[in-house]
Amino acid sequence: MAKDPSTGELAPALLEQFRQTGLRLDRRGRWWHEGEPVEHERLKQALFSWLDRLEDGRYVLRLDQERFAYVEVEAEPFIVRAVDLEAGPQGVRVHLHLNDGGGEELAYGTLAVAPDNALTCEVRGRFRARFSSGATTALGELIEETAEGFSLRAVGLLWPVDGS
Fold first, then answer.
1. Which residues pair with 11 in a beta bridge?
2. Is the pLDDT of residue 1 over 50?
3. Domain spans of the chain?
4. Who's near 5: CB < 8 A, 6+ residues apart?
5. Could you tell me if 85 and 96 are in contact, meaning their C-beta atoms sit under 8 angstroms apart?
6. Residue 159 β-bridge partners
7. 102 closest CA partner among 49, 61, 27
């Protein structure tokens, strides 16, 4: 039975089946649909704008509170492609350029080393981003070895790099 006759809503199993999209976001930040790369730039931007995460950790494309579909995400969904270092009166500020075309200031206290030694941080207030090798190299000039491991010197403070 496709719909519950008393409510007119889709049966839960059928709804779960409809929520499977065949979309995948690989560890390099590239979108794929059923094995084929998604090439259309505006579609890729839309997919990033709809990306969300359920309480159980699964990634979804969310249109609103009721409507969402699952998407497979291989690693961190965002990639830091480049960083800009801006000197100021309180020290250097770090601005991130992300693979979705957006940017933001580094959330300094979220800098961490992943199990595969990639540098990561929080972006968009709820996602992790992986630094590209070029962005890691640029950020490296602000990283110092301390007694506790490694720390980032920015905005007048020394920020521990978690997992270092």
1. none
2. no
3. 12-73, 78-160
4. none
5. no
6. 152
7. 49
Cα–Cα distance for residue pair 129/109, rounded to 1 Å: 14
| 11 DSSP assignment | P
Furthest CA-CA distance within the chain: 66
Which residue in the block uniquely carries the two structure tokens 């979804």? 60
Out of 1.10.760.10, 3.60.70.12, 3.10.540.10, 2.30.42.10, the CATH code matching 12-73 is 3.10.540.10
pTM for the whole thing? 0.84
Q: Using the 8-state DSSP alphabet, how is residue 110 labeled?
A: G
In the chain, at which residue ranges do the beta strands (DSSP E only) sit? 20-25, 31-33, 36-37, 51-53, 59-62, 68-73, 78-88, 91-98, 103-105, 112-113, 119-123, 127-131, 143-146, 149-154, 157-160
Tokens describing residue 144:
């110092």
25-80 per-position pLDDT tens digit: 999 999 999 999 999 999 999 999 999 999 999 999 998 888 899 999 999 999 99
- Encoding tokens for residue 143? 């990283």
Pairing verdict, β 68-73 and 149-154: unpaired
Count CB neighbours of 45 within 10 A.
Answer: 13
Name 69's bridge partners.
61
For residue 68 the two structure tokens come to 């969402």
Give me 101's structure tokens. Answer: 């075309």
